[in-house]
Each structure stands twice: as structure tokens, then as C-alpha cells.
Specification:
Helices cover 78% and strands 0% of the residues. The chain is mostly helical and 246 residues long.
């Protein structure tokens, strides 16, 4: 009985330390990524969107890569529908995150629609890295709250500042959006498959730019992922077949 009691005391004492570590990590992610909202606000203003439109995108869409893709296509003169379609395809990945997080977090049904708005790369990464449901919920909530608040505040600051400066291209701020977009994308390119898909996507965009209207090359580049996955599957089947013959 004494040994069991000591183990319980150790677990109870370790919970505050574990919670503090989760909060620290979650705030670090939220602050680091949230500051990128400034670049989005500048880019959005440079694309011709008003301050209200820029803020509405961050409040209602809240998925950085999709937002940058949308305003980038608009800035290039793309059709709003094709720009929105490209942003939509980028945002589809969040639905797959949601499937995984639904079982992990086990949130009450009334809360799920609100929590779904915070299902993005960063909140998913922090939540999935936790060892149990309690810390996963804590990491998801702290990351989502800090990132959402800071992203929207910096979007407002960036849009207001860009409007005050005037022509963002004259200050070189038009490059801020693409630079941050690449910074958000880079951590995802960890494996050979991801890098191959990114490389093929770049080639498709460059090949289609002179031929297709602005915004459409981004949609064509979305074909890179299924193409690379199909090639990988074919290669795996061939390797399996050769192994079976031997």
C-alpha cells in the first residue's frame, strides 16, 4: 500500500510540471507563428484588400497558408474564384487533422464547432505530441488561443501599417508574404515524398505560368501530391513483387 501511495504522490506532483511544460511550448509556438500575421496584413493590403477584409480573413478563415495563397493569387491578378479554390485545396488538410484530433481530444459535442476553427498545423502538432488526453487538450487550447489572438492583432497592425505607408512594393514589403509562406511550408518538407511533391509542384507552376491565367497554376500544382503518391505506391508494389519472386 505504501508503494502505491508513493507512486500516486509522484504522479500528482508531476502533473503541474507537465502542464507548465505544455503551456510553455504551446505559447512558444503561438507567439512565434502569430507574429507572421503582420506579414499577412501587409501582403493583403498590397493585394488591394481593405483593412476590414484583411481582418475578416484572419478572423473567419484562420489558416495562414490558405490566406497567403488567396491574397497572393489576387495580387497576381487572378480570378477570385480560382484564388479561393487554391486556398480551399490548401485548407483541406485541416479536415484530416480534425479526424485524428476528434478521438484524441474527446471534446463535448457543443464545443466541437468552435474547436474545429482552431484545427491547423500548429495546434495539431502540439496536441499530437502530448502523452495523454489532458495535456493534449491543454496544448491544443493554449496554442489555439494564443495564436488566434496574436495572429488577428498582427494582421490588423500589418494592414493598418501598409495602408499608412502607401505602395508596399516601393518599400519591398510585397516580398514579405511569399517569404513567410515559404517559412510556413519548410517545416513540412521532412521526408522524400514531401520534398518530391514540393519540387514537382514548383515545376508545374513554373511551366503553367506563361500559359494559364493567374491563380490556375496553383490549382494545377495540387496534382503534384497525388502524382508523387501514385508513383510511390507503384514503386512499393514493384519492390514487393520482386521480393516475392525471390
Amino acid at each position: 500500500m505504501r508503494g502505491v501511495a508513493e507512486q500516486i504522490d509522484i504522479r500528482i506532483g508531476s502533473e503541474p510540471k507537465a502542464s507548465a511544460a505544455v503551456v510553455r511550448d504551446a505559447l512558444g509556438v503561438g507567439v512565434a507563428v502569430g507574429l507572421s500575421g503582420f506579414a499577412f496584413g501587409v501582403t493583403s493590403a498590397g493585394a488591394g484588400l481593405s483593412i476590414a477584409q484583411s481582418c475578416a480573413l484572419s478572423l473567419l478563415v484562420f489558416t495562414g497558408a490558405s490566406q497567403f495563397a488567396l491574397v497572393g493569387a489576387l495580387a497576381a491578378g487572378g480570378n477570385p474564384l480560382t484564388a479561393a479554390a487554391g486556398a480551399f485545396f490548401l485548407g483541406v488538410r485541416n479536415a484530416f487533422y480534425g479526424l485524428r484530433l476528434s478521438g484524441l481530444l474527446g471534446l463535448p459535442r457543443p464545443v466541437r464547432p468552435l474547436a474545429a476553427h482552431w484545427v491547423i498545423d500548429e495546434t495539431s502538432a502540439v496536441a499530437l505530441a502530448q502523452p495523454d488526453r489532458r495535456t493534449a487538450r491543454l496544448g491544443f487550447t493554449v496554442t489555439g488561443l494564443s495564436l488566434y489572438v496574436l495572429w488577428n492583432l498582427t494582421t490588423l497592425a500589418g494592414a493598418v501599417g501598409a495602408n499608412a505607408l502607401g505602395d508596399t512594393a516601393a518599400w519591398g514589403l510585397d516580398a514579405a508574404g511569399p517569404a513567410v509562406f515559404l517559412a510556413l511550408l519548410a517545416p513540412m518538407l521532412r521526408g522524400t515524398v514531401e520534398r518530391a511533391a514540393a519540387g514537382l509542384g514548383v515545376l508545374l507552376v513554373l511551366g503553367c505560368l506563361p500559359l494559364l491565367p493567374a491563380g490556375v497554376p496553383v490549382l494545377v500544382a495540387a496534382l503534384a501530391a497525388p502524382a508523387v503518391l501514385a508513383a510511390q505506391g507503384l514503386r512499393a508494389r514493384r519492390a514487393t513483387g520482386e521480393g516475392g519472386v525471390r
